[in-house]
From TrEMBL:
Superkingdom as given in the UniProt entry: Bacteria
Reaction equation(s) it catalyzes: 5-(methylsulfanyl)-alpha-D-ribose 1-phosphate = 5-(methylsulfanyl)-D-ribulose 1-phosphate
Pathway: Amino-acid biosynthesis; L-methionine biosynthesis via salvage pathway; L-methionine from S-methyl-5-thio-alpha-D-ribose 1-phosphate: step 1/6
Family: Belongs to the EIF-2B alpha/beta/delta subunits family. MtnA subfamily.
Pfam family, one: IF-2B
This protein's name: Methylthioribose-1-phosphate isomerase
Protein's job: Catalyzes the interconversion of methylthioribose-1-phosphate (MTR-1-P) into methylthioribulose-1-phosphate (MTRu-1-P).
Organism in which the protein naturally occurs: Streptomyces alboflavus
Length: 394
């Protein structure tokens, strides 16, 4: 059974898939959807490794294909990983795979984003509960799908509420509008059931006419900022400028940044924030230049089981993502060499953590769908988690 988790999904051009009406600002293909063609249920992903050049779908017919899509970042970003984990378990149940085995493989496909395990385990719990309640396999599979759809819908709703709270906070910190916001990695509709986390706040500011500039870090090495955030900003008609990650310092020094808005992959109980590598240096810069550093994430990203930053497992990725430049980014993971163009001498060792951890004292506020925690304390986060709708996961 283990081998099947090394297979990959099948890429098909978007033109061959059912037509989805284009909504301005939202990718023409949703980041994820469940479909039930005559051949059997599938999870269809917008293949993010091919953006921005090509909007194509990746049709996953089994959980191993989804695991592979997660590892190669065809699907990525904490909230979307949660939704993917849940649909992956639904796929396992609907297609007669071992649900527990699939849930383990999905939950462990990437270690840092706690949402992934949350989504997979919540769907697994729905399956177990349905069977325990006397449902047959078919009805249990429908129950898992309902749970996955709930994870998806709740994330969409949370996204809207985060945008409202986040914009109110920006306006409070910087009365008068004209916000110049710096963001890192990609946190928009591509990572969410809705319009995202940090990006959704910037988008709300834009719609209210209060976003003067969105500074977009390119986000080395896999360029989620250049490829994905710039794509989303352009689609939404936002005033954005792309910069190399190491240009951020001079931008702060020039007084061009009013706030940093980022997402999170895991927020420990003490308020330590794991996010895309490069977030921590931004937090240090922001503190030095007296600029608010704001983290926007759904409550599902807060992990009371992880006591502090030191306990967060940071994903280490293959060195070739650093030593090679790969365009398009279709072969960046899963093999020793990535098949790209080498930019370093052969045999160069690379340090390639996917995330870094920012201590709570450098975080001005954590914005969630339940409200804002500022200052960021263990007590404040615990209170917020207690307020939020809790789903028990066995
Ligand atoms: O490695 P990725 O592309 O999955 O990393 C994503 C990020 O770091 C995002 O900032 C984070 O998941 C928050 S998404 C709302």
């Amino acid at each position: 059974m283990a081998d099947q988790y090394a297979q990959s999904g099948e890429a098909v051009p978007a033109s061959e898939s059912p037509e989805i009406p284009e909504t301005p600002g939202i990718p023409a293909i949703p980041a994820i959807r469940w479909d039930e063609p005559p051949e059997g249920p599938v999870v269809v992903l917008l293949d993010q490794t091919r953006l921005p050049g090509e909007e194509s779908e990746l049709v996953c017919t089994d959980p191993p294909a989804l695991v592979q899509a997660i590892r190669t970042l065809a699907v990525r970003g904490a909230p979307l990983l949660g939704i993917t984990g849940a649909y992956g378990v639904a796929l396992a149940a609907a297609r007669g795979f071992d649900v527990d085995e699939a849930a383990d493989a999905l939950a462990g496909a990437r270690p840092t984003a706690v949402n992934l395990a949350y989504g997979a385990r919540r769907a697994q719990t729905a399956y177990r509960e349905a069977l325990a309640g006397g449902a047959d396999e078919r009805r249990a599979a429908r129950a898992v799908l309902a749970a996955a759809r709930a994870v998806h819908a709740e994330d969409a709703e949370a996204s809207g509420r985060m945008a409202v709270h986040g914009l109110a906070l920006l306006d409070e910190l910087m009365p008068g509008g004209g916000h110049r916001v710096l963001t890192h990695c990609n946190t928009g509709a591509l990572v969410s059931g809705g319009e995202g986390t940090a990006f959704a706040v910037a988008l709300a500011a834009h719609r209210e006419g209060r976003l003067r500039r969105l500074w977009v870090d390119e986000t080395r090495p896999l360029l989620q900022g250049a490829r994905l955030t710039a794509y989303e900003a352009a689609r939404n008609g936002m005033p954005y400028t792309l910069l190399t990650d190491n240009a951020a310092g001079s931008l702060f020094a020039a007084g061009e940044v009013d706030a940093v808005l980022i997402g999170a992959d895991r927020i420990a109980a003490d308020g330590s924030v794991a996010n895309k590598v490069g977030s921590y240096p931004l937090a240090v810069l922001a503190r030095y230049h007296h600029v608010p550093f704001i983290v926007v994430a759904p409550v599902t990203t807060v992990d009371p089981e992880t006591p502090d930053g030191a306990a967060i497992e940071v994903e280490q990725r293959a060195g070739h993502e650093v030593t090679e430049v790969t365009v398009p980014f279709v072969s960046m993971a899963g093999s020793e060499a990535g098949g790209g163009i080498s930019v370093a001498p052969l045999g160069t060792q690379a340090y390639n953590p996917a995330f870094d951890v920012t201590p709570p004292e450098l975080v001005t506020a954590v914005v969630t769908e339940e409200g804002v925690v500022s200052p960021v304390t263990a007590e404040g986060l615990a209170e917020l988690c207690a307020r939020s709708r809790q789903v028990t996961i066995s």
